[in-house]
Write a structure and sequence with these properties.
The protein has eleven helices and twelve strands. It is of the alpha+beta class. The strands form three sheets. A seven-stranded mixed sheet has the order 1-2-6-7-5-4-3. It has a three-stranded antiparallel sheet with strand order 8-9-10, covered by helices on one side. Strands 11-12 form a two-stranded antiparallel sheet.
């Protein structure tokens, strides 16, 4: 379940089995480079699916229509094609998927491979994979969302090279999944290729309050852009679903002058480029409009009651806040048949408040000292104070969001922050 706090790589939920059958099965005609960005199929391409499969279209056909190749590939041949110029190691796992990292031998390029079995009892529903692929392709065009590099459907036994890496991971770190040697020749897998965005926030060491504030505003800006362009709600932005890549940034060259005002401009913090690149990942529970059609909405009904029963972490409260937000209020939320298709951007604010809670209490950054030998810089004090102010302004546990105007979306928050000259 996506709310599992111990899972580094978020999982895709499973419900019922699917009766989709496979019509076409092909081999890899040329090395399938995971590095190439998938632009061959639009977010929806009904005409292509219709041309390929005629009137009897199954969910698997729809998924294939979204993929880089519109045919089912042999799993072992597909992996062999990647290994011609790359190495692959296991990166992580979720309850219903395995995650590997492809590293090209001729460059520093890396790609994440999320491998999801489907088509059998207790495996992921095809429509859940379709939703994840469509939203991933759509949001990848926006800064702050993880890049999408393609998708494939493969069939067959779990390849030996991946089994070897699975065993290495199990010996070094331990696996909570069953060793994937039980899959049979007819087993289907979706392989989703994504940009390697770095380590998740839970496993990232932030060095200062300035970095913590930078992480927050990058996430807020991404959500605000997603709202504006695609009516996007993440709905599961825990600290495992936000990844950070620390990068080298060359200092910008400045021409200094003896003029005091010009000198101050040269030292302005506003001109400092971030060394962190923050990306949102995993849209298993997300909602988004995937085309210009206002009715073309992908979303996941959050009907698993276990999602709202968790205790002991603020994350579980956020799920309950979301449910209350989209419910009618006429009956208790747990008794209502909720329409999760409704656009409720305040859910993004709930998760941004969760993020402030994580940054302020869980990242291990010392509270800035006011005085003494270890007194913090004014920048550190200001960043810490700003994060505290924002946290109070968007706290969903209060009847009103602070004393200022109502902040009911990430877009509202960014607009308020600009008016207050925080960003």
């Amino acid at each position: 379940m996506a709310s599992n706090l111990k899972t580094e790589i978020p999982e895709t939920p499973t419900k019922d089995s699917t009766d989709d059958s496979i019509i076409v099965r092909g081999s890899v005609s040329s090395p399938a480079s995971a590095e190439a960005t998938d632009s061959s199929v639009s977010c929806t391409d009904d005409a292509l699916v219709q041309a390929l499969y005629g009137d009897e279209i199954t969910e698997t056909d729809v998924l294939l229509g979204l993929c880089t190749e519109q045919k089912v590939l042999e799993f072992d041949q597909y992996i062999d094609s990647l290994l011609e110029d790359s190495s692959i190691r296991k990166l992580g796992e979720a309850s219903y998927s395995e995650v590997f990292l492809q590293s090209r031998t001729d460059s520093n390029s890396t790609t994440v491979l999320k491998i999801i079995p489907f088509g059998q009892e207790e495996q992921c529903e095809v429509k859940s994979i379709i939703q994840e692929v469509r939203i991933s392709k759509t949001m990848a065009q926006i800064d702050g969302f993880i890049g999408f590099r393609g998708a494939y459907v493969v069939q067959g036994y779990f390849p030996e090279p991946l089994m070897d890496e699975w065993d290495n991971f199990d010996m070094e770190r331990g696996s909570e999944n069953v060793r994937p040697d039980f899959y049979e020749d007819h087993q289907l897998f979706a392989v989703i290729l994504l940009e390697n965005g770095g380590s998740d926030l839970e496993h990232t060491e932030l060095q200062s309050w300035e970095e913590a504030l930078d992480v927050f505003w990058q996430a807020a800006n991404a959500l605000a852009s997603g709202e504006e362009k695609h009516l996007f709600e993440h709905r599961d932005l825990h600290w495992g679903n936000l990844v950070i890549d620390r990068r080298e940034v060359e200092p910008r060259k400045k021409s200094f002058s003896a003029n005091p005002e010009t000198l101050l401009e040269g030292l302005s913090l506003e001109d400092k480029e971030s060394t962190l690149k923050v990306s949102l990942i995993d849209y298993t529970l997300s909602r988004a409009r995937c085309t210009d059609d206002e009715n073309d909405i992908e979303f996941m009904p959050l009907n698993d009651t276990a999602l709202f029963g968790g205790k002991g972490d603020y994350q579980f409260d956020i799920y309950r806040f979301m449910r209350k937000e989209v419910s009618s209020g006429l009956v208790p939320p747990e008794e209502e048949c909720i329409d999760w298709n409704v656009y409720a951007p305040r859910t993004n604010i709930f998760w941004l408040h969760y993020l402030t809670n994580i940054l302020l209490t869980r990242m291990g950054i010392p509270r800035p000292a006011a005085r003494g030998r270890n007194a913090a810089s004014q920048t550190e004090k200001d960043c810490f104070r700003q994060l505290e102010i924002v946290a109070k302004a968007i706290d969903p546990r209060k009847k009103k969001f602070g004393k200022g105007p109502a902040i009911t979306s990430a877009g509202d928050l960014v607009g308020w922050a600009k008016a207050e000259k925080y960003i």
